[in-house]
Amino acid sequence: MRAFNTTMRQHANVAFKVTRSAAVVPSRHMVQQRRGPAPAKGVHFSDEFMSVLSKSLEREESRIAEKIGLPGLHLHEMVEEEDIEGTGTLIWAAGVRLSQHIVKNRTQELKGARVLDLGSGTGIVGIAAACLGAHVMLTDTRDILPQIMENVHQNGALVEAAGGSATVQELDWNQPDDEVLDQDYDWVFGSDVTYTEEALLPLAKLLRQLVLTNEQCVVKLAHMHRSKELDRAMRETFHDEGLMLRPVDCRTTGTTKYEDPLHVDEAIAFYRVTLDPALRELGGN
């Protein structure tokens, strides 16, 4: 706990260095790596179109905040003209559903909890947890950090009022920083982080290290079904790393089902990641 709090204090100022007027745009390479080639590549849009798009995004932001259960939450995904596909709500679907789950079902458990958010993207899940009073470290690749920091900045008042905190730190799954991993986390969240087969092995190795060193830690992933091949590769890769994927129903609260007119839930699976008992008995070898 002491180590976690020390690191949080060291990085506390990072989250608030980006001003409202800063131009926050993730690199085109990273956006496409996550979501595939931009269908609008090479196409330029008028200022009028971009203005209409901006207003549309503001309305969508308000709708998503209400859907999650945190009115007043501000979340912007910064895009360039060639990355217009990044504005689609389906990109956020897994994060919205996971955020709904933690807001509706885990409020008391997250108060004061230590949380690691992997592949934060817009920061939707980590910021939602911080707005419930959790102490969250949001992580992603360097190119994505400005976007996360801006969204943390925009929601600073909500986080502070809840008694939580949100810090931002770079985390390369292929070369993970021990300063990030060597913390006593209570929860680890990952939303739509299993988007390509190339991401699976470094993610599985990272999660294996986390659950080996944090026996009390609860790891939850929201996975977007993209293909049967990707789903199979995910199961096999995690199994090979000694990890079990336990399906979790995050789509219901008691007997009340979330509204889902577009059947988005059918494309999302929720898992709790645990260490294979046989591997634990062997001490993680």
Topology:
Blueprint: H1 2-10, H2 28-35, H3 47-68, H4 89-105, H5 107-110, E1 114-118, H6 124-130, E2 135-140, H7 145-154, H8 156-162, E3 165-170, H9 178-181, E4 187-191, H10 197-213, E5 218-224, H11 228-240, E6 243-247, E7 252-253, E8 256-257, E9 268-275, H12 277-281
Helix pairs in contact: 3-4, 4-6, 10-11
Structure notes:
The chain has 285 residues and is an alpha/beta fold. The protein has a single domain (2-24, 88-281), classed as Vaccinia Virus protein VP39 (Rossmann fold, 3-Layer(aba) Sandwich). 43% of the residues lie in helices and 16% in strands. It has helices at residues 2-10, 28-35, 47-68, 89-105, 107-110, 124-130, 145-154, 156-162, 178-181, 197-213, 228-240, 277-281, and strands spanning 114-118, 135-140, 165-170, 187-191, 218-224, 243-247, 252-253, 256-257, 268-275. It has a 7-stranded mixed sheet with strand order 3-2-1-4-5-9-6, with helices on both faces. A two-stranded antiparallel ribbon has the order 7-8. Helix 3 runs parallel beside helix 4, helix 4 packs parallel to helix 6 (124-130) and helix 10 packs parallel to helix 11 (228-240). Mean pLDDT is 75; it is low at 6-43, 79-91 and 252-258.
Spell out the CATH superfamily. Vaccinia Virus protein VP39
- What summary fits the major beta sheet? 7 strands, mixed
Structural class: alpha/beta
| Beta strand count | 9
The CATH topology annotation reads as Rossmann fold
Q: Into which percent range does the helicity of residues fall?
A: 40-55%
Number of domains: 1
Nearest-angstrom radius of gyration? Answer: 18 Å
Q: What proportion of the residues form beta strands (DSSP E)?
A: 15-25%
Elements, N to C (H/E): HHHHHEHEHHEHEHEHEEEEH
First-residue to last-residue Cα separation: 26 Å
Major β-sheet strand ordering:
3-2-1-4-5-9-6
Q: Which regions have little confidence, pLDDT < 50, spanning 5+ residues?
A: 6-43, 79-91, 252-258
CATH structural class? Alpha Beta
* Proper CATH architecture: 3-Layer(aba) Sandwich
